[in-house]
Design a protein that fits this description.
CATH architecture: Alpha-Beta Barrel
Shape: globular
InterPro entries: GP_PDE_dom, PLC-like_Pdiesterase_TIM-brl
Pfam family, one: GDPD
Oligomer: single chain
Order of helices and strands: HEHEEHHEHEHEHEHEHEHE
Radius of gyration: 20 Å
Number of domains: 1
Largest sheet: 10 strands, mixed
Structural class: alpha/beta
Organism: Bizionia arctica
Domain GP-PDE: 32-301
Protein name: Glycerophosphoryl diester phosphodiesterase
Helix content: 25-40%
């Protein structure tokens, strides 16, 4: 089979040039917040305690995760408010399909039932190297307790937690509570953990961030962005300047970097997985990087003598 080698050669050349540029800037004392996306999704099952422990073992600064609510008002770590066909198997061992996944609604299940679903055995098509194991979706408080205990036991620096509240106003009372109740339930768990100073609440949902700011104004907040509106427009829509601006990786450019600095916001893009993307974000001197492959990012940072804070 014949294929065009030019795009591959162009990418290799770009990576090589970026490496040369970065090597020449080694002495700038750059530090980066290394965030493990859903733990270490490229390596172990997403949003699970083994995945978060693996991320800590690698040396992440921050554990990034998502939370939803169960029928009995437990705060569950999960990217979707239902069991995704990509990762889940029913308590009866049945495969969940794209067509029926939303029927497995976490908000309609008590946590004791949620624990019976497996989310670690099924091969992940997009992450073929992910290690498989039987595992269930954990509670937020259990993730925090396990992470705190692991770092204490192993003499490691305490991690930060970047917690996304997965709220969509169209799904209120269907897949999760209305915004005030949702936020209240999450904040109760954060206050119970007694580590609010190491927690950031992130969301795409403006009402969620506004509610958190109203209820706990001292918490660090991050606006997640995947639209192509300007930074100024997104901040205007939010109604205040958050501590963190967190756009999709392809939205990052020099203008955005400069604007974030002017407004004293940290810039932390997601989800940065390829070597080319990692090097480009380092070149932009972003404040943090959210990645499915914290091992890959840590290796690049170490090779460039860039510290994690």
């Amino acid at each position: 089979m014949h294929f065009n080698k030019k795009p591959i050669m162009l990418r290799i050349t770009m990576v090589f040039l970026m490496l040369l540029s970065l090597q020449s800037c080694k002495n700038q004392n750059q530090t980066i917040d290394l965030q493990g996306h859903r733990g270490a999704r490229g390596i172990l099952p997403e949003n699970t305690i083994p995945g978060f422990i693996k991320a800590l073992e690698i040396g992440v600064t921050t554990l990034e995760m998502d939370v939803v609510i169960s029928k009995d008002n437990k705060v569950v770590v999960s990217h979707e408010p239902f069991f995704s066909h990509e990762i889940a198997i029913t308590p009866k061992g049945e495969i969940i399909t794209l067509e029926n996944e939303q029927q497995h609604n976490i908000y309609q299940l008590p946590y004791e039932e949620i624990k019976k679903y497996d989310v670690g055995i099924k091969p992940h098509e997009r992450f073929p190297l992910q290690q498989k194991m039987p595992v269930h979706k954990p509670l937020l408080i259990d993730v925090i307790n396990e992470a705190e205990n692991y770092t204490t036991k192993n003499n490691l620096k305490k991690p930060y937690y970047n917690i996304e509240i997965k709220r969509n106003s169209e799904f209120d009372t269907i897949y999760h509570p209305a915004v005030k109740e949702f936020v209240t339930l999450v904040l109760e768990q954060i206050n119970m953990s007694q580590i609010a100073n190491r927690i950031c609440i992130q969301s795409f949902d403006i009402e969620t961030l506004q509610m958190v700011k109203q209820m706990e104004p001292q918490l660090t907040l991050a606006l997640l962005v995947e639209n192509e509106k300007s930074l100024d427009q997104n901040i205007k829509n939010l109604g205040f300047t958050p501590q963190v601006y967190s756009p999709y990786v392809t939205l990052v450019n020099q203008k955005l970097v400069d604007n974030c600095k002017k407004q004293n916001m940290l810039l932390i893009p997601w989800t940065v997985n390829t070597q080319e993307e990692i090097l480009e974000m380092i070149q932009f001197q972003v404040d943090g990087i959210i990645t499915d492959y914290p091992d890959k990012l840590k290796s690049v940072l170490d090779s460039l003598n860039i510290s994690v804070f």
